[in-house]
Design goal:
The structure is a single chain. This protein is of the alpha+beta class. The protein has a domain of about 210 residues: FAD/NAD(P)-binding domain. The protein is about 35% helix and about 25% strand. The strands form five sheets. A seven-stranded mixed β-sheet has the order 5-4-13-14-15-12-16. Strands 2-6-3 form a three-stranded antiparallel β-sheet. It starts with a helix and ends in a 5-residue tail after the last helix. The structure holds flavin-adenine dinucleotide (FAD). Flavin-adenine dinucleotide binds next to helix 1, strand 1, strand 2, strand 16 and helix 10.
């Protein structure tokens, strides 16, 4: 998302040549949904494709938190919370990528190119691919996601921040929740989130890693194992009809870890680590994609003002613009993880008691702030 956004916004005037190295052979079905705050969806206004994105999206009007027995602990009116900015959208990752791709300059995409390293050469940088090809430029944007090879080539291994939970995602048929309501169930050792999208309900189930099924099991066995854990620890969610069939889609495993690179610029500000490669996100606040898109738009803007000589200054300016805001949003996601994914019944009881009185928006206020201040 960060790479395509940078390329689309920077490449559109033709003043700056962009090349996108993508290790996949093409973007197919990637199988899960994304919640997009206006922080991220606003970028599509700049691209001229907001209408197309909205056509493929649902609107999340209400966010509900339930206890393990189904008791409603908290309701957030997202429409009111975000009234000044725009709606929160629910959209598949595949649709976001597809809409972004339509704005990337013709000829910029190089599919099947796995980047392995970036290094300084002369007055610029060179990115090397697994096939031994080298691409030189004034700057490189390392937007290769959470498991970034380019980050590793600069900083070595970065220890992930690990919650100890695994999340599993799949699509269930519509019907279990209203089409504009996000419903979550917070139980001890079992988190269940239901996110309605145009192609069905994106179900997310998080359990402690020791209770997580083997990814080698067949899809039906994975879902049956998760349902049994949820039925024990969050029975209200375990009993919701329709959730526990993946309709043929393979559940997607997402270990609940994130990373923070030592810095988001490198090699004398010739490299920008944009999106999850620099500051990665847990999905708990639903703000990772929004930050990737917004950071990339900010980077494209700063680079659009630069030429070859001033490009490092632009990258340094971008760092100054985004670092604190994105760090804070990552912190919020980590704090939320601590209350959404708890192991023990006693802790869960305390969290649920607090949730009745302390609005969850207390923990996400920096996300709203990021839409009010220069980013
Ligand atoms: C299951 C799941 C659910 C999520 N839900 C939400 C949500 O609800 N809300 C939200 O805001 N965020 C969500 N996120 C997070 C969001 O998807 C990421 O924060 C966002 O995609 C980060 O964008 P990015 O551009 O940094 O990385 P990505 O979108 O991951 O893009 C990285 C790209 O780099 C390519 N690549 C990887 N390695 C290489 C290489 N070595 N060479 C060349 N190409 C490479 C990949 O194929 C990919 O196309 C979710 C993430 C997951 C995994």
């Amino acid at each position: 998302m960060a790479g395509l956004t940078t390329a689309a916004l920077l490449g559109r005037t033709g003043s700056h040549e962009v090349v996108v190295l993508e290790h996949a052979e093409g973007f197919g079905e990637v199988g899960y949904g994304i919640g997009l705050y206006p922080l991220g969806s606003a970028v599509f206004h700049a691209l001229g494709s907001y209408g197309e994105l909205a056509r493929r999206s649902t609107t999340f009007a209400t966010y509900e938190v339930h206890g393990p027995d189904g008791q409603l602990l908290q309701t957030v009116d997202l429409g009111a919370l975000l009234a000044d900015f725009g709606p929160m959208l629910g959209v598949t990752r595949a649709d976001i990528i597809d809409v972004l791709l339509s704005s990337v300059p013709a000829g910029a995409m190089r599919f099947g190119h796995h980047a392995v390293a970036v290094q300084a050469v002369g007055g610029g940088v060179a990115v090397t691919t697994a096939h031994g090809e080298t691409f030189e430029g004034d700057v490189a944007v390392a937007a290769d996601g959470m498991h970034s090879a380019l980050r590793a080539s600069i900083f070595g291994d970065v220890q992930p921040h690990d919650t100890g939970f695994d999340a599993w995602m799949w699509w269930a048929p519509p019907g279990a929740v209203l089409p504009d309501v996000v419903a979550e169930y917070w139980g001890p050792s079992a988190f269940v989130g239901l996110y309605p999208m145009t192609r069905g309900i994106n179900v997310a189930v998080a359990v402690p890693r020791e209770l997580s099924p083997s990814p080698d099991a067949d899809p039906a066995a994975i879902i049956a194992a998760l349902q049994s854990t949820v039925a024990e620890h969050a029975p209200a969610a375990g009993a919701i009809a329709g959730l526990w069939e993946a309709g043929g889609s393979k559940p997607f495993l997402w270990p609940m870890q994130d990373v923070r690179a030592p810095d988001i610029t490198a090699l004398d500000d010739r490299v920008a680590l944009c999106g999850d490669s620099g500051i990665g996100f847990l999905p708990t606040a639903g703000v990772g994609a929004s930050n990737a898109l917004r950071s990339a738009a900010a980077l494209a803007y700063d680079l659009s003002l630069a030429d070859a000589a001033s490009a490092p200054l632009a990258v340094a300016r971008w760092r100054q613009r985004v670092r604190k805001l994105v760090d804070k949003n990552q912190e919020d996601s980590r704090e939320l993880a601590k209350v959404m994914m708890v192991k023990h019944g006693a802790t869960s009881a305390v969290v649920n008691a607090v949730m009745k009185h302390a609005p969850v928006t207390m923990m996400t206020s920096s996300i709203v702030k990021s839409m009010q201040v220069p980013f």
